């Protein structure tokens, strides 16, 4: 790696895990191409994409491994998260079972993946709730109205922010709620991960536990619920 | 002839668990009928019945003239194409192939897989035909001087065309070469097959009507008919530019070929056929050819309505697979217009759903949607359904299973092939840690469909269906070879993937754009790929792949299994936290190990049964099909996909026998005892010397009521089976509690059937019985003998000293005493059942008091041998209340004093009842948890039992020193072993010691103790027995006189009440076996072949099997008929 250049650039391997159809590939597509496809083909095995992320002090080149979500593909996952420095564990915030699956993945990663892996827990499909679209008509989702009466305004949300967040804090994960469809919070996730990757692991030395500290210091600023709203109004208009 | 020794060998390899776990006989030694089916792509119903060397002659149909003389006919035959090969007959098919085949009766394993070698592009079926017998219209025997034996076969070619008379029917000429006898035998078999095929002609007609070839080949006059469905392409256009694909000229060539060589089922494979496939199929024939070459057409022919019936049957039903399918419907080949339309999506939904119902083990796997979507472009829903079935079951075994082991395995195989064929590239990949399967896995899983542009992927599929899975490897290797130079520059996964991505996008470009020669320039990259794949990698054959699969299978399965184990253990929930990771790991292993082994065993037993059945009505089929088929031998292995996850009660017993020594039976079924059908469970007759329901060399589990209660307790979902979660939770509750109160409560709840916090008289007796059962092999854990000896010595010293020397012994002994005391105390402190006794509380109170007053002295609760054979073991004679509180019922004493016996046995039962309200069934009583707790805590040994020894008796982690049956001194030792006179009445009538003769006598002191324990258990049983009896007496309102009792006891001894006593069970099961043995014998006489008057089970085959050939040779006249068959 060119360490001598003023703005060093390094590669970071990132793996996406989560239940089928929670929007893993869509998150990547949004991040890499700033695009969204309604009917994305299911990922077979895994897809590989790269995207750069510019930080003030350095450039991170993400090598993104986007894995298949179906349960039976789970046994392939170790092949993909091998040597990953970061992971994005995605759930669908309109589907509580997907959070359970996400927790399983977090446990698997904590035990089996490289020590010090930076894990971000991401609740996707924020566009199906009413908070994302407060200032944005795209966020209104008529179809989910009938399904759920417990939340205000026919919100399709089934996993509360607090629940997921407290779990994330317990496990020392980054936490975001995103909408790949609207672009809400997507780049933020990747930037946060980039920031959380310890320098040591960038130089090829993966210091165990080194990731934990920076990850936590990022937490308060990143897991800011007002953040998503801001960016939603910024990026949401693009859709 | 049936190969018995090979079966025995397999049986042995199965019995040896290490071998059985690792080797699938089906892989190492594929059954010949499997090879046969794979070669001709026939359904599983087909077995090779006969085969004969033959020469196929195909005369150009134009030459045909019905009035030709014999000489002309001979000349015609000489003029046509000649192929020498093997002609095979199965139940429903006549197949011919020029590929070397070797399912000869005497073929060895190595040659039997020989034909899976190079096929030179012809596919395993080679040149020849695969003709359903129902497609044969007429078979004639030709009179010829040149040939010994020649058949002329007329087919139902063009069966759907009503005007076929105008055209010459398709005729094949086959010369059989072989002895006259062999030829006649073959013809005879053929004739029989043809007769049974007659009924299928209508079915055939319906099935081929869906083939596009029938439509295009019919005369111009009929072109008004609507063509059969040749896929979504007919509505939404086929992918690619038809002109660029030269679809028209391809179609013309095919029409020509089909005209001369038959269509769909009657098609004859000549070299041109394979060439035409290599250059790519025309759009409208593609579906049909895929169906034909993959063999799914034959599957459809077999059961043409399966698709529609399945859909109808499961309409409206929901499943996990359907949920998963729904998620993907809108995202399957979304770029193809047909799948942006509800028409395409509906078809896709129906096919995937129907398949998920027919194969629920596979259900739905992502990538299937892509494959089926691709199929649907070229074929009808029905056709796609059968092709999908063929793909999942045969062409891509294990690819889409729930563990995807087939996919992972083939990735490993692919990697090893790369290493072998491209070592430099391989070293590069290793050096830069590029994981090849990351790239290649989608190639295999979705058959290149979402890797290459569709038009090229379909070209690969054309060859794949004809030549089989090796094509996927050949193409994959060729891709790497062609891009080798560039790939050597790639130093990470990203670059690697990028190179291949861009290669795929340029497949239609010229491979040699800079070449001077126009012809070279015209070669596209795809053409180059095909050439490299099939020329350079022609050495990749089905057998080399099978070999590699064999080699890597274990490591792949192991890694899947360790992943599954990890995941499964992690997701066990909060209860599992009470156990260590190691313990969870071994619990997991034990749980699935038992499920797996049980599956294997039941499979073996089933095999065995089938084999026997077959042996009884021996047919030609089995003569040829010599090897036992064990395709699903590995079913049940976790890594292989859906495996059983639920453990039934018998499995649970086996599980317990593995972790707790008390769960091992005392009365193992005697080993290898002739042919006796011993059905300890289940009614499957089996041969004892090879197949034990518990596996060889493993402890046979006991069957005690306690185990049943435990099972029910753990079975929280009430489905009569336990999953791993249940077992872990169950164990965690016993082992993980760590406090005595929890342990006591747990035990109490086990016996509190209705959950009302009360355990009745019956329950108390059962508890005591269980305590004895659990302790009969000694107690574990931190029983501190020294301490307890000290603590108890004052009471015991008098009795223990001389009789028992070892501390181990004393513990056991004292435990028995404790249990006796337990019973008594329970009754003593039991509460009357108010619901029934409200009216007379005082009386009960009085009786209790009286009871207490009459409390026997410590020695009164006598357990001992009655040399007079009387069963009156309980003797509640008078005693002092002071001693009652600490009373220990001495066992040694009666033993020691056994010589002074017979004692005053005269205390009749009636008296005992009068003396003890506990024994009065008319006074229901119960104990509550606090009482139970108090009673337990009152006794140091019991306290220790609940505190440590019971939880410790479940030994999960350490490999248990297997209590081998032979080494365990059986508690069944009769008193005769000790020099005591065994009460003969007891050992026979009482059911104790029914197996005394087969059990090695216990030795010395240990034997004494065993006896004590046994006797103790008997006491408990007797107590309850007495209760039953008393109950009965109450009911009868007639008091039996003591004189009758002996007999009475024997009769009333309900075997169920002694459920835990193996010997009881054994005695009765032995009886049953006798009956069953008789049954089996009767059966075998009935169904046995006449020529085998003695159905000796040792030689399951009639001594003189009548082969069809043999019988036929006696009747040569039938073979001389000219028209062997005609419709």
TrEMBL record, chain A:
Source organism superkingdom: Eukaryota
SMART domains noted in UniProt: RAB, RAN, RAS, RHO
PANTHER family noted in UniProt: PTHR47978
InterPro entries: P-loop_NTPase (IPR027417), Small_GTP-bd (IPR005225), Small_GTPase (IPR001806)
Species this protein is from: Calycina marina
Region (Disordered): 134-163, 203-239
MF-aspect GO terms: GTP binding; GTPase activity
Keywords: Nucleotide-binding
Name of the protein in question: Ras family-domain-containing protein
Cross-referenced Pfam families: Ras
Biased composition (Acidic residues): 140-153
From TrEMBL, chain B:
One family name in Pfam for this protein: RabGAP-TBC
UniProt cross-references to SUPFAM superfamilies, sorted A to Z: EF-hand, Ypt/Rab-GAP domain of gyp1p
Domain of life per record: Eukaryota
Bias (Basic and acidic residues) ranges: 833-851, 1062-1075
Compositional bias of kind Polar residues: 1110-1120
InterPro entries, per database record: EF-hand-dom_pair, Rab-GAP-TBC_dom, Rab-GAP_TBC_sf, Rab_GAP_TBC_domain
Annotated protein name in UniProt: Rab-GTPase-TBC domain-containing protein
């Amino acid at each position: 790696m060119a360490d001598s250049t003023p703005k060093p650039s390094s590669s970071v391997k990132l793996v996406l895990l989560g239940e089928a159809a929670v929007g893993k590939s869509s998150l990547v597509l949004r991040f890499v191409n700033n695009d969204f496809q309604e009917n994305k083909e299911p990922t077979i095995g895994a897809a590989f994409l790269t995207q750069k992320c510019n930080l003030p002090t350095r450039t991170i080149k993400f090598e993104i491994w986007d894995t298949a979500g179906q349960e039976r593909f789970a046994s392939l996952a170790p092949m993909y998260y091998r040597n990953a420095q970061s992971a994005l564990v995605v759930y669908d915030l309109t589907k509580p079972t997907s959070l359970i699956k996400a927790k399983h993945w977090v446990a698997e990663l904590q035990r089996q993946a490289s020590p010090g892996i930076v894990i971000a827990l991401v609740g996707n499909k924020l566009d199906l709730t009413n908070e994302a679209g407060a200032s944005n008509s795209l966020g209104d989702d008529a179809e989910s109205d009938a399904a759920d009466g417990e939340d205000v305004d026919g919100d399709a949300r089934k996993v509360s922010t607090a629940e997921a967040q407290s779990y994330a804090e317990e496990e020392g994960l980054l936490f975001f709620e995103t909408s790949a469809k609207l672009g809400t919070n997507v780049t933020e996730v990747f930037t946060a991960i980039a920031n959380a990757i310890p320098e040591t692991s960038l130089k090829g030395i993966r210091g165990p536990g080194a990731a934990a500290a920076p990850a936590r210091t990022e937490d308060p600023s990143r897991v800011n619920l007002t953040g998503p709203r801001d960016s939603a109004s910024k990026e949401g208009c693009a859709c | 002839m049936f190969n018995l020794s090979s079966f025995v060998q397999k049986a042995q390899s199965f019995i040896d668990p290490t071998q059985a776990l690792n080797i699938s006989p089906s892989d190492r030694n594929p059954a010949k009928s499997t090879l046969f089916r794979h070669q001709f792509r026939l359904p599983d119903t087909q077995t090779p019945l006969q085969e004969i060397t033959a020469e196929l002659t195909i005369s150009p149909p134009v030459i045909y003239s019905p009035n030709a003389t014999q000489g002309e006919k001979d000349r015609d035959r000489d003029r046509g194409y000649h192929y020498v090969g093997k002609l095979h007959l199965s139940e429903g098919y006549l197949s011919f192939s020029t590929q070397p085949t070797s399912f000869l009766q005497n073929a060895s394993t190595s040659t039997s897989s020989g034909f899976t070698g190079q096929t030179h592009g012809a596919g395993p079926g080679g040149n020849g035909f695969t003709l359903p017998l129902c497609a044969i219209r007429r078979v004639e025997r030709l009179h010829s001087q040149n040939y010994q034996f020649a058949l002329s076969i007329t087919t139902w070619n063009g069966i759907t065309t009503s005007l076929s008379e105008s055209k010459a029917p398709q005729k094949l000429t086959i010369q059989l070469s072989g002895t006259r006898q062999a030829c006649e035998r073959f013809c005879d078999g053929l004739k029989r097959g043809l007769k049974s095929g007659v009924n299928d002609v209508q079915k055939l007609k319906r099935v081929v009507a869906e083939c596009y070839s029938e439509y295009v080949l019919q005369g111009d006059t009929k072109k008004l008919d609507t063509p059969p469905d040749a896929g979504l392409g007919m509505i939404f256009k086929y992918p690619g530019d038809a002109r660029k694909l030269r679809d028209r000229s391809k179609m013309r060539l095919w029409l020509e070929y089909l005209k001369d060589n038959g269509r769909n089922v009657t098609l004859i494979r000549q070299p041109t056929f394979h060439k035409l496939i290599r250059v790519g199929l025309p759009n409208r024939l593609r579906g049909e050819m895929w169906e034909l070459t993959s063999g799914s057409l034959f599957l459809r022919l077999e059961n043409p309505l399966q698709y529609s019936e399945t859909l109808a049957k499961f309409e409206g039903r929901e499943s996990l697979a359907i949920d998963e399918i729904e998620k993907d419907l809108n995202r399957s080949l979304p770029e193809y217009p047909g799948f942006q339309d509800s028409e395409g999506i509906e078809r896709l939904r129906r096919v995937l759903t129907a398949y998920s119902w027919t194969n629920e083990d596979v259900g739905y796997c992502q990538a299937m949607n892509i494959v089926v979507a691709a199929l649907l472009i070229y074929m009808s829903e029905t056709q796609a359904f059968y092709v999908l079935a063929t793909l999942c079951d045969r062409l891509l075994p294990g690819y889409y299973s729930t563990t995807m082991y087939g996919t992972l395995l083939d990735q490993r195989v692919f990697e090893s092939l790369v290493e072998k064929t491209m070592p430099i590239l391989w070293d590069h990949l290793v050096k830069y840690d590029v994981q090849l399967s990351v790239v290649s896995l989608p190639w295999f899983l979705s058959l290149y469909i979402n890797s290459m542009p569709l038009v090229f992927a379909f070209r690969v599929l054309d060859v794949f269906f004809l030549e089989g899975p090796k094509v996927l490897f050949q193409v994959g290797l060729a891709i790497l070879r062609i891009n080798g130079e560039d790939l050597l520059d790639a130093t990470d996964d990203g670059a690697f993937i990028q190179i291949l991505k861009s290669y795929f996008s340029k497949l239609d470009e010229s491979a040699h754009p800079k070449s001077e020669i126009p012809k070279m320039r015209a070669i596209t990259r795809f053409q180059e790929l095909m050439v490299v794949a099939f020329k350079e990698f022609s050495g990749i054959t089905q057998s080399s792949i099978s070999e590699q699969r064999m080699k890597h299978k274990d490591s792949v399965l192991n890694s899947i299994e360790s992943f599954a184990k990890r995941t499964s253990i992690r997701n066990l929930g909060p209860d599992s936290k009470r156990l260590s990771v190691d313990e969870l790991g071994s619990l997991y292993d034990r749980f699935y190990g038992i499920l797996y082994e049980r599956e294997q065993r039941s499979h073996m037993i089933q095999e065995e049964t089938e084999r026997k059945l077959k042996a009884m009505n021996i047919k030609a089929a089995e003569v040829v099909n010599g090897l036992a088929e064990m395709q699903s031998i590995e079913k049940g292995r976790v890594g292989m996909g859906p495996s059983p996850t639920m453990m039934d009660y018998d499995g649970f017993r086996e599980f317990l026998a593995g972790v707790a020594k008390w769960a091992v039976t005392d009365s193992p079924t005697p080993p290898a005892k002739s042919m006796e059908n011993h059905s300890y469970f289940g009614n499957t007759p089996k041969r004892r010397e090879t197949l034990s329901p518990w596996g060889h060399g493993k402890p046979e589990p006991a069957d005690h009521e306690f185990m049943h209660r435990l099972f029910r307790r753990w079975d929280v979902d009430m489905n009569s089976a336990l999953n791993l979660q249940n077992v872990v939770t169950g164990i965690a509750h016993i082992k993980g509690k760590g406090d005595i109160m929890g342990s006591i409560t747990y035990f109490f709840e086990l016996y509190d059937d209705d959950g009302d916090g009360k355990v009745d008289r019956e329950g108390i007796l059962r508890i005591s019985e269980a305590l004895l059962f659990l302790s009969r092999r000694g107690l574990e854990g931190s029983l501190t003998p020294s301490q307890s000896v000290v603590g108890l010595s004052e009471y015991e010293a008098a009795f223990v000293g001389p009789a028992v020397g070892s501390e181990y012994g004393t513990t056991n002994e004292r435990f028995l005493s404790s249990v006796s005391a337990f019973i008594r105390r329970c009754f003593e402190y039991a509460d009357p059942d108010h619901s029934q006794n409200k009216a007379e509380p005082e009386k009960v109170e009085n009786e209790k008091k009286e009871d207490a007053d009459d409390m026997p002295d410590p020695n009164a609760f006598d357990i001992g041998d009655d040399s007079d054979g009387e069963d009156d073991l309980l003797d509640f004679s008078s005693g002092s209340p002071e001693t009652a509180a600490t009373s220990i019922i001495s066992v040694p004493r009666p033993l020691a004093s056994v010589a002074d016996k017979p004692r005053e046995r005269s205390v009749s039962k009636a008296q005992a009842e009068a003396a003890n309200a506990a024994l009065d069934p008319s006074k229901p009583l119960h104990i509550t948890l606090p009482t139970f707790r108090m009673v337990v805590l009152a006794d140091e040994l019991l306290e220790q039992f609940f505190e440590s020894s019971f939880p410790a008796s479940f030994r999960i982690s350490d490999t248990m020193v297997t209590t081998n049956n032979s080494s365990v001194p059986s508690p069944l030792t009769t008193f005769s072993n000790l020099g005591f006179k065994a009460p003969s009445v007891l050992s026979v009538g009482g059911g104790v010691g029914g197996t005394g003769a087969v059990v090695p006598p216990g030795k010395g002191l240990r034997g004494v103790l065993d006896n004590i324990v046994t006797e103790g258990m008997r006491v408990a049983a007797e107590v309850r027995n007495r209760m039953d009896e008393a109950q009965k007496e109450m009911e009868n309102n007639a008091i039996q006189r003591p004189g009758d009792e002996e007999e009475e006891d024997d009769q009333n001894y309900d075997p169920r009440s002694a459920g835990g006593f193996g010997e009881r069970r054994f005695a009765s099961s032995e009886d049953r076996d006798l009956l069953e043995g008789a049954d089996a014998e009767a059966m075998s006489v009935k169904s046995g072949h006449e020529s085998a008057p003695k159905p000796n089970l040792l030689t399951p085959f009639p001594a003189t099997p009548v082969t069809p050939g043999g019988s036929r040779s006696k009747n040569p006249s039938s073979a001389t008929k000219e028209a062997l068959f005609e419709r």
